[in-house]
Amino acid sequence: MTKFQLSFQEALEKLKNDKNNTVAYFFQEKNNKKGVLANKFFSIKSNFATTEGVSHASSISLLNFKPSYNATVFQKLINAGAQPLVKVHNDELGLGGKGLFSAFGKIVNPLDKTKLIGGSSSGSAATINFVHFAIGSDTGDSIRRPASFIGKVGFKPSYGAVSRYGLFPYATSLDTVAWLTHNVLDSILVSQVVFGSDENDLTSVEIDVKNVEKTKPKKVAFLDLDAEIEDYVVKKLYKLRNILKSDQVEIEIIKPDLNLLKTILPVYEIISYSEATSNLSAINGITFGNTEKNLKWEEIFIRTRSDGFGLMLQKRLIWGSFFLEKDNQEHFFIKAKKMRTLIKNYYESILNKFDLVVFPAFYGIALIFKVKTVKKVIKLLILF
């Protein structure tokens, strides 16, 4: 792994003086295990279960939750010798793409406080300059968008490559463990440690990444999205295209089916909100959540999900409940799952012809934080 500019103690001191509202907990236990990640330290999102520290997923509803086990990915990193440094804040329960929806306040972009950090793995992105790697989760673009906003490598593995055991579920069919690193080689090393099947996650599979070799791609496709993205991003893609051409890589420009492309967001929202409604139903003040004494069970339910959940989360769960209503399932949820299959088949047909398909993680650079922006986001959540 790349030699890091900060020592553990220096990184610790800098994070203790953190002004970006990122740190939820400082790990106290020293990891003395030896392995390929010995003396490497990392941050981890607060929606992962760990026996030490907080695991509240930046939600008031889980403020006092103490897991009795470690998430598989966390335990694998410990076994490889890595030292956890901090648990970090995120958009509440992993829902949100801005870094604005933690119950503990806005998570600040460390490179430019006027810009959004992205989310939901906001704290992971905001701490990457103080650690060797940062663990988060990615359901829609929760690692990739923040990584693009701060100029780091963000990697979302294929579904099932890494066990989700101990990652609090948002949308079960979409959730993945993901991470940020300083370069691609470091991301490969993390992959070699955490990839693999796990009896606690039946969707996980064994993928051999032990012997990764540097190989030049022969055929690379670029999706022609120039009319949909900002000029700055277009120029960067042109530059990459020219570099590959000069290295004798065959390039093909593909005009994607924009009508199909524009269905991705509503399909994602319908499926993810619906699955979140089911997955988070256990946070009710009785099964999970902060239970108040001397209240009827109906009152406990209402208080937990009214006082314990933020506005953004409440709205998404209301929509999820609507999509799952018996009379609405066929029109929304089932149709969205059928559309997901069409989208998957379309992109697989492209991937099967090329070694790589290149397109931007986001249409532009980090968005400017404005009160109007927040109001617009809330308005869009209400409308959809």
UniProtKB/TrEMBL annotation:
Known EC number: 6.3.5.7
InterPro entries: Amidase (IPR000120), Amidase_dom (IPR023631), AS_sf (IPR036928)
Domain Amidase: 29-363
One function term, GO molecular function aspect: transferase activity
Keywords: Ligase, Transferase
Major enzyme class: ligase
Keyword Ligase assigned: yes
Cited PANTHER family: GLUTAMYL-TRNA(GLN) AMIDOTRANSFERASE SUBUNIT A, TRANSAMIDASE
The name this protein goes by in its record: Glutamyl-tRNA(Gln) amidotransferase subunit A
Organism in which the protein naturally occurs: Mesomycoplasma hyopneumoniae
Phylogenetic lineage: Bacteria, Bacillati, Mycoplasmatota, Mycoplasmoidales, Metamycoplasmataceae
